[in-house]
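Hi, here's the filled form for the chain we discussed.

Project: internal
Contact: R.S.
Residues: 309
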Amino acid sequence: MIELEGVPELIDPVMVAAFEGWNDAGDAASTAVAHLEREWKGEVFAALDAEDYYDFQVNRPTVWMDAGVRKITWPTTRLSVVRVGGDKPRDLVLVRGIEPSMRWRSFCNELLGFAHELGVELVVILGALLGDTPHTRPVPISGTTSDADLARRMDLEETKYEGPTGIVGVLQEACTHAGVPAVSLWAAVPHYVSQPPNPKATLALLNRLEDLIDVRIPLGELAEDARAWQVGVDQLAAEDSEVAEYVQTLEEARDTAELPEASGEAIAREFERYLRRRDGGTGPSLPGERTRPPKPPKATTDDDESSED
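And the returned structure, exactly as it came back:
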């Protein structure tokens, strides 16, 4: 039985999760949740028992010094709670860890136990994958769900993916079977520059999350980091004529695939975000009603992986 004596009653809680490993190209997803923890000063209230889910020869513990005393940090998954202020305050339950090595069903059931006890209304799982996308264009973000009704209400894609999956896909399906609304947001990371960090992909995930759950997320220096990252990759590509030619090919393919109406929707979404940030809150809405952004343009990533979860 899960006991959460130190956690107060939550307001419209949403669980946001990300896991290092196979579902986290460029560390974009796990860095996004880490950013939320840092900006909103989240405090860990629970951690899963590392012995139950991790192979320590795969994910090794680390030893460190604390005031002259040696301590060990074990690989695990931790949960924290942050309260988002404003006219419509709500709480986020942040889940950040490493994709488990074993007992995935028990792992998901334990997370769902926390979600049930905390009254979580929606689970949003962040992921990042490698794709044929140029670093010079906006990062494609695909939002998917297994729930057809939720897909209609939140302007998401109903996933049709078949094939190998990771903990993101398994957790989403576990939520669906448990009757907990669940969504996955995927960022496409250029496969030719896959090494972390990728602040541009992290920023894109946070912007999409902001739209999805209707909260204003403090971005700190992420926008500047994303610009610096792109300049750095531009310089590296310019030094290799083959890479530069390949990037140009990806740009042409991406631009050809962009529909005029999709571009208009992207502009409308960015304008709505600008208005929210200028006004210091959310955009116009009816009393007690949360706004919903226009449907985002469909991501132009690999046909298989981009619609996985």
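Let me know if anything looks off before we file it.
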